[in-house]
Amino acid sequence: MQGKILIVEDQFIEALNLKVILENAGFPVCEPVQSVPEALQAIKKHHPRFVIVDIFLKGPGTGVDLGRNLMENHIPFIYLSANTNADVLEAAKKTHPYGFLVKPFREKDVLVALNIAQYLHENSFESQLFREKILSNELESIRKEGETISQILTAIAAVLQSHIPFDYFSIDWPSNEQSSIRKGLLRVGFREYQEIGPQELSNISRQALPVVDTIKLQPQRLKNAEVFSGDMETLLANQPLFRVLADSFSFRSCLVYPFNATNSQLLILYCFSRKENAFQKEHTDLLGRIEQKLHKILKTITGEVTKVQRSGGIASRPIPAENPDLIIGRSDALMKALDKLSLVAPCDASVLLYGESGTGKEKFANYLHQHSARSRQPFVKINCAAIPANLVESELFGHEKGAFTGALARRIGKFEQADGGTIFLDEIGDMPLELQVKLLRVLQENEIERIGSLHTIKVNVRIVAATNKDLEKEIAAARFRLDLYYRLNVFPIDLPPLRHRQEDIVLLARFFLQQTCAKQNKAIPSIHAAAFDELLRYHWPGNIRELQHVIERSVILCRDAEIQSFLLPSSDSYYDNQQPPLKTWEEQERDYIISVLKRCSGRISGERGAAKVMGIPATTLEYKMKKLGIKGKIS
Ligand SMILES: Nc1ncnc2c1ncn2[C@@H]1O[C@H](COP(=O)(O)OP(=O)(O)OP(=O)(O)O)[C@@H](O)[C@H]1O
């Protein structure tokens, strides 16, 4: 690490102790300071490479206040703390420190913390640069010629989605000729959006179309790039369009980005999210860095807008998604994981996948490999729990002939097989402790040693690890090394269990049904509503794999044109005992139809009818209403 380390600590003895430890280890250190104002001055003067800051300091401002400042200025830092309460710890975590050093600490703790922090900083900085380079390339490759406004905006949204977590995205260029609001894109799946224009907004908000048509963006009140969360009221009071959108879709945070480009058409990008605090300054900063690129793309379409809108605009329908290697599902939890996945895929960073058995960890690992520059190189999988402890080392690193009894020939280990590609270490939490040290060495030095060999071999491998264990608990129980954990945990991704992804169960069931029928060369049977209810009520301890097997078994045994019931393990439904009863599939469908009918004042067909909002033919809706017993005037 070049440059000096700054210590911000108001306890003189502790500051001195830390300084001595660091200097003995060869790190240059600035004179310690005791308060936030002193620290700010020292930062100006010395431009430290790294800051170690105590959370509780004398004088104005706390260590967390300083942490916020350091985060904004991209200066890496770690916190020093004694007994910190949960609230302070939460606030501290939000400033993205590279580590915590808990008092009292030993010399070894300080050096390990610093080593890990340095690695994390370099890695996150490098991968951020790399991700931005990819983002920039993706924006450049958006086709402009011959594409409609809608196609171009959708392409921009799909590229930005992994970087900015929005549920709704739009770019407006207010002009005198503009007769109504621009269409926005509502996220409905992975890179799948539904266009929301005046007609859809009128249906959903239950405001008459002529009223919605008069609502326009007020650009004069949107001068600065800003993010809004709990304080959205001031924004909504000045922007009737935002008010209608926020009320209609229950949005709870917003990002506004007016383009700075001078002498050109005024452009305003805005996004909404249903989550609070979804947007941060880092998102507007990112937009600032790519503004020129966006402007270049948009320049070609802003002149076209009047023509397209007058000619009736674009039909409202979900825009088909790019097929993400058949990762099926639309739940929020899955979308979040997929966004992270596509963000990290092109980088070389290690990834740690957390999830119960059968949640799709291997599928995600495969996706990462396929979407990286290593995709033409090998993808090698090893399950650390499935191999006897005494054989894992030979499996991973290989052995020379005669290295141990039974080593009759030289064996090439998985790391060598994966050279140039990706290695997937499944169940990493089960890796024996002594092997963890060797894995750390591969991560740090990119080299391995076959058992029985005196030579080291250079390997270039990306590591994707997975576990269904809580590694922090494993560390506490001394079964997993803290330093390895920090190295692997550079980019963690959580895969939600299926029982928390109720909306994905039906999609996955249909997918496996089609897949199995195709394999078995069978006609696809329909599924009785009661059978779907069974799937929704079951708690899926084996997650997606279990669902897949249930469907496969049911298809094989089904002799009719309809599956009446699925073959689920005994009926001790988890939800019967643990939670209030879930609504049945039919009840949910019924509620949904009634709510849409209400919004459409009971109208079924036509431009403003419920069938249009639901994206199904009016005759299908009428059939469903009859089947579900929805009668009478609903308004
Ligand atoms: N989103 C998805 N869409 C379609 N199929 C999926 C999805 N997720 C998982 N699967 C399928 O479910 C099965 C189990 O997934 P996978 O093997 O990736 O889970 P896992 O978490 O690695 O399991 P384990 O921890 O037991 O190794 C596989 O057949 C996989 O193809």
Structure, explained:
GO terms for molecular function: ATP binding; sequence-specific DNA binding. It is built from 26 helices and 22 strands. The strands form 6 sheets. The chain has a 7-stranded antiparallel sheet. A 5-stranded parallel sheet has the order 13-16-19-12-20. It has 635 residues and is α/β, with parallel strands linked by helices. The chain folds into 5 domains: 5-130, Rossmann fold (3-Layer(aba) Sandwich), CATH 3.40.50.2300; 142-319, Beta-Lactamase (2-Layer Sandwich); 345-494, Rossmann fold (3-Layer(aba) Sandwich), CATH 3.40.50.300; 498-578, Helicase, Ruva Protein, domain 3; 585-627. Adenosine-5'-triphosphate binds next to helix 14 and helix 22.
* Number of β-strand runs: 22
Classify the fold: give the CATH topology of the largest domain.
Answer: Beta-Lactamase
> What do we call the CATH homologous superfamily of the largest domain?
GAF domain
Strand order of the largest sheet: 8-9-10-5-6-7-11
| Beta-strand content estimate | 5-15%
What is the annotated CATH architecture of the largest domain?
Answer: 2-Layer Sandwich
Rg, nearest Å:
28 Å
| Number of helices, where a helix is a run of at least 4 consecutive DSSP H or I residues | 26
Mean pLDDT score, rounded?
Answer: 83
- Cα separation of the termini: 68 Å
Using the alpha-carbon principal axes, give the shape: globular
GO molecular function, one term: ATP binding
Organism: Flavihumibacter petaseus NBRC 106054
GO biological process, one term: regulation of DNA-templated transcription
Pfam families: AAA_lid_14, HTH_8, Response_reg, Sigma54_activat
